[in-house]
Amino acid sequence: MTSDSTSLTLEIAHDILEQFTCLEMKCQCPPKDLEQTRQALLLLAHHSEYQMLGICADSLDEALTALADYLTALGYSIEVNPRTIDPIDGAVYLKFNGRNQSYYASAYVEKYRGVLVSFQSSDTEEVNGTYGHFPLNLFCQSKTLP
């Protein structure tokens, strides 16, 4: 974690992530805000049992790349294999279930692009909730965002 994230509480993390709810993201925030967003997501993930991801992208390749990057950041060790999904032309919705570590894709006609993250916990005192849409490349390996 960066030095700015050492004072990040669950309440502050929630407030940071809530700003993304139902926004059409094209990565319009400054890099410092993106790092804070990454840290907030990781903190809430640490305080939940598992996560579910919903990825809205222009192509299956773009969705699978985002899935692999988010899963690595969130600590999952599942290998994303594009051959396990039938090809889809055009925009897709890719859903990942962290409980059983499975994913599937379907055609998608809505305008939103980005990643929805749903934190799941059986204990109501732990983190539960859905946030996003976050930039597809928020956790890209190169950390280079437009």
Task: Report a brief summary of the structure.
The protein has helices at residues 10-18, 31-46, 60-74, and strands spanning 50-57, 92-97, 102-107, 114-120, 129-134. The chain is α+β, with helices and mostly antiparallel strands and 146 residues long. It has one domain: Dihydrodipicolinate Reductase, domain 2 (2-Layer Sandwich).
Please describe the topology of this protein.
Layout (H helix, E strand, L loop, with lengths): L9 H9 L12 H16 L3 E8 L2 H15 L17 E6 L4 E6 L6 E7 L8 E6 L12
Antiparallel strand pairs: 1-2, 1-4, 2-3, 4-5
Explain what this protein looks like in three dimensions.
It is a single chain. The chain has 146 residues and is an alpha+beta fold. It has one domain: Dihydrodipicolinate Reductase, domain 2 (2-Layer Sandwich). The protein is built from 3 helices and 5 strands. It has helices spanning 10-18, 31-46, 60-74, and strands at residues 50-57, 92-97, 102-107, 114-120, 129-134. Strands 3-2-1-4-5 form a 5-stranded antiparallel beta sheet. A hairpin with a 4-residue loop joins strand 2 and strand 3. The longest helix has 16 residues, at 31-46. It is globular and about 45 Å long.
